[in-house]
From TrEMBL:
SUPFAM superfamilies: Apolipoprotein A-I. The chain crosses the membrane at residues 115-139. Gene3D superfamilies: 6.10.250.2540. The lineage of its organism: Bacteria, Bacillati, Cyanobacteriota, Cyanophyceae, Synechococcales. This is DUF4164 domain-containing protein.
């Protein structure tokens, strides 16, 4: 049989435990540093988030103020435009009535003019017919001349 050589450990248990303890302390120190770094970053993020929330609240207030101001401006503009529209409507109604009366007056004038024109045309036609009749001897205005027998 072959025998394997015995290995001997020259370290003492205290040294090994001290080394393990030192390594663990170093690891814990690294982890503590990382936790502190993470805590700082979380604190910064929390502060930024708080600033964002405050900014959002301010923006909401500004938006509400602008909305109210715009609503007031829109209402004032709507009222002013409504008043102007009513005024224009009244003016146009008056102008339309005036134009309607003028058109009615023109219609009456045209009716009178047509009546006069018909009368003139009838008179001219009658004069032409009478002149033609006289010219062609259908109608005589003078008395016939009698021949006298003077013997």
């Amino acid at each position: 049989m072959t025998t394997t050589p015995k290995t001997t450990v020259t370290y003492s248990l205290e040294d090994i435990l001290a080394r393990i303890e030192d390594k663990m302390d170093a690891r814990f120190d690294k982890m503590d540093a990382r936790f502190e770094k993470v805590d700082r970053q979380l604190t910064e993020i929390n502060q930024r988030l708080t600033k964002l929330e405050v900014g959002q609240a301010e923006l909401s207030g500004d938006i509400k103020a602008l909305d109210e101001r715009l609503s007031g401006d829109i209402k004032a503009l709507d009222e002013r435009l409504s008043g102007e529209i009513k005024t224009l409507d009244e003016r146009l109604s008056g102008n339309i009535k005036t134009l309607s009366e003028k058109v009615d007056g023109l219609g009456k004038r045209l009716d009178n003019q047509e009546f006069l024109n018909r009368g003139v045309v009838v008179a001219v036609l009658a004069a032409l017919i009478a002149g033609g009749a006289k010219l062609f001897g259908f109608w005589s205005c003078s008395k016939p001349v009698e021949k006298s027998n003077n013997k």
